[in-house]
Amino acid sequence: MSARIRSWWGWGYEDAACSEGEVSGLGFAFGARFGVALSARAPRTLDSLELAPPRFAAPSALAHLMSDDRRLRAAHTYGKSYRDVVRGFHGELAHPPDRVAEPRTEADLVALLEFCEKERVAAIPYGAGSSVVGGVECDVGGSFRGALSIDLGAMDRVLEVDRVSRAARIQAGARGPVLEEQLKPHGYTLRHFPQSFEFSTLGGWLATRAGGHYATVYTHIDDLVESMRVVTPSGPSESRRLPGSGAGPSPDRLFLGSEGTLGVITEAWVRLQEPPRWRGSAGVRFSRYEEGVAATRAVAQSGLFPTNCRLLDGGEAALAAGAGVVGALLVLGFESADHPVGPWIERAVELCRAHGGELPGGIKLSDTRVGEKGRGGEVEAWRTTFLRAPYLRDALVRLGVIAETFETACTWRDFPALHAQIVSAVTDALTRICGAGAITCRFTHVYPDGPAPYFTVYAPGRFGSELSMWGEVKAAASEAILAAGGTITHHHAVGRDHRPYYDRQRPAPFAAALAAAKRALDPTGICNPGVLLPAP
Amino acid sequence: MSARIRSWWGWGYEDAACSEGEVSGLGFAFGARFGVALSARAPRTLDSLELAPPRFAAPSALAHLMSDDRRLRAAHTYGKSYRDVVRGFHGELAHPPDRVAEPRTEADLVALLEFCEKERVAAIPYGAGSSVVGGVECDVGGSFRGALSIDLGAMDRVLEVDRVSRAARIQAGARGPVLEEQLKPHGYTLRHFPQSFEFSTLGGWLATRAGGHYATVYTHIDDLVESMRVVTPSGPSESRRLPGSGAGPSPDRLFLGSEGTLGVITEAWVRLQEPPRWRGSAGVRFSRYEEGVAATRAVAQSGLFPTNCRLLDGGEAALAAGAGVVGALLVLGFESADHPVGPWIERAVELCRAHGGELPGGIKLSDTRVGEKGRGGEVEAWRTTFLRAPYLRDALVRLGVIAETFETACTWRDFPALHAQIVSAVTDALTRICGAGAITCRFTHVYPDGPAPYFTVYAPGRFGSELSMWGEVKAAASEAILAAGGTITHHHAVGRDHRPYYDRQRPAPFAAALAAAKRALDPTGICNPGVLLPAP
What we know:
Strand order of the largest sheet of chain A: 5-6-9-7-8
Number of domains of chain A: 4
CATH topology of the largest domain in chain A: Uridine Diphospho-n-acetylenolpyruvylglucosamine Reductase, domain 2
Strand content of chain A: 15-25%
Number of helices of chain A: 15
Number of strands of chain A: 16
Mean pLDDT of chain A: 95
Radius of gyration of chain A: 23 Å
CATH superfamily of the largest domain in chain A: Uridine Diphospho-n-acetylenolpyruvylglucosamine Reductase, domain 2
Distance between the termini of chain A: 39 Å
Oligomer: homodimer
């Protein structure tokens, strides 16, 4: 894997980027959709860019852990939001990290944090850099001498597997494929598959409360954590391995979602699964979107706990599943390593039918031990498409197309108004700013009391103005979310980008408590300044 | 209900206390069990006790909310642990609250907290007083002028029901039966049934992370909360109603388990259920305890999510279920308002059989709509026995019998050693201190990665020495729990009694963060001093 080169400006491996032919094809398709002519440009080359020189020297004791390599600094400048990719594409790297550190051990990390405290350097934890909210940026303000990006990628080992309790102790820098590869020989899987799977780490998931594979019950990585170890400037914090506890407020829940502001997560015990043997899936079509919502709510409140429960609106259905014209498409899936899931999916489908759903393809049941390789292949194909989407976004950036997603969660009662207000606000903004565009919606996760809707926006941008154009659309969407009672993020985190809205959403006393907790753990304020709380 | 008089020293309503005949019967049974003669004594009468006079006056503006009634002060002196009931029984009321306040509105509560801050009076939030960990005590140390017990009982209304999202906004002072009574006309239930159901409140459950009805998934009240409102000395904190979120560390999770140290919870939006229509239950016997543990682990890891999954050891099985001599008895239950649960329980039973389980009574399936009143009656009978247990404890106290419970949670891997070490430590202590005694174990909740074992201890005590005798046993049990990797509490909370062990269990940086959060929200430190953190 180390032989593959990762793009310094776009999503993933350079050898997996869209070919020029694919880019042209996308340009043709999106151009036709928006009634404009699109042509691709090339990103600035790294060689053509001037990076500001590092503002601090590497101390000799830590020199072997730090690098000022141009490519490394450029690649660690941003995460992978649309905004980030556009800035990288245009070569706007105003605030690269002064140096990039790669600790190999916790002792290395402690030494790096001590250096940062002593030298007043901001410490920016970096997992695999796929933040879409400005969570790994180094524009930390004037009160720091500089910024050190601390890449945990070398701490990527599965340290211990407890087969009896079905749990593993894993280092925070392990990317999705890297930890799954190590769990496989033990016969287990974490089954946490965010879209960023390839380029995100356990530590990043924990720090941002990432949403994963399970549409119900274990929706966030939070639910798969047994204990965590966090290196704070005030010392390491390690919670006991406990399946459940009621001893005071949960220590882990303070660090889950702390986004590097309280310290750096170094390892965690996480709950594992056996690979599923039995699967059931169905695509349920509804002629009216409202029927699809009502059916999904019924399934979410049924106690059946589907693994997949993804309601796509008409636009998503056409785009992602080639489903033609429908009001909504519910992609239902159950899986189990323990039992056939027939009774589960049959009841879920019954609920859907009672709300007007139709199943042209029926229910598909499979058992991996009786040779239904076709199912596995289909799932693999879906996963490949799912994981490939960010590569397509790079191509769209090259075409000047605005392409971004945002997500929220709200109660079932509030959803119709929230959906209408967001679609209306974004459509108005797109028309005004871009002259055209589309917004689609799917549910990524569902709860008994409400869904987590995920919106995708595409619009024709103008090269050089993409950021301000998208900024206006994003502001309109964010205002609509807050006004309609949603959360500014369900699983993309807060970072620097969502801060103004997070500040309004968060209860003021909790903000004061969190700021006080940060002062206690990070008295000099070096840990990811500007994220969650104001930079000093 | 207001007409019934609640015991000032023992568990519940005076008219529900054990009759003298029942007390004698218990004395005979326990005496025979331990080979001693037991005779019942009467508690001190309230009239015979001297209570220290209140150390502060009620200000005229708040006089209508405060009382110095002797009975009220005595009844608010302790919670309902064994230690509390013994102290009440002997008339040891060294630190009663100086006054008892009963706010009717949030404005009342704000005024009371302002008074406490101004006058340096400790504010001790009181739900229905069934803390078993010293959570509502008023022995707050010399840095306060006195202590005000703030009884939330008058704030007990269901304020709003959202049928679409299946959630309700409920005031914190509502006791279990009071809130269920109000939800019933809407066709919903919270289904949170701790053993203290009759004498505990929503606010108390939230403040202590109470464990409830569900053996899996929704094990704690934490999992049923959508948003909370907390009045802190620094102002009210109200989170958004969100089914899920990833916007920073969860505000609710800071207040869940805060045990009144950060402020007073005044209301919450909680998730509701429809009353279950379909039920399935089975009693599975194992000749060896280890087989029962292995079977329970298999069920807990199966993804079947039973509502009840209570593994009783031989002693518990004989005591609670009259099951005769067995190694273990697994009480399995599934329930649903949506679908018959046959396939679920059948698979769970299959797993149990694979681990040596036998079902002399088979699987019982029921549907409330087809007239199986017998099942409802049996469940009701079980619930009555369950809720009656604390009344029996009062009788045992009158007999000088030590009777108490404690609980923990640990991984499946650690459980055999933890169980052995606790049983050995407690048995040794009982033999040494009491000359006899018994310890039994059941699982109240189970997780994929471990169980929550709940221990019950009975032993012959000596009148006047019960507290020191039990103190030694409890210390032995608590040391064994910590040494074996458990938590000092799974759902009984920390209070003042578990503090020394909680302090050792809690990561030091988290303790610093929590203390800092408290200083931010409660700068004068009036909120339940001595709980979770040292009193000033």
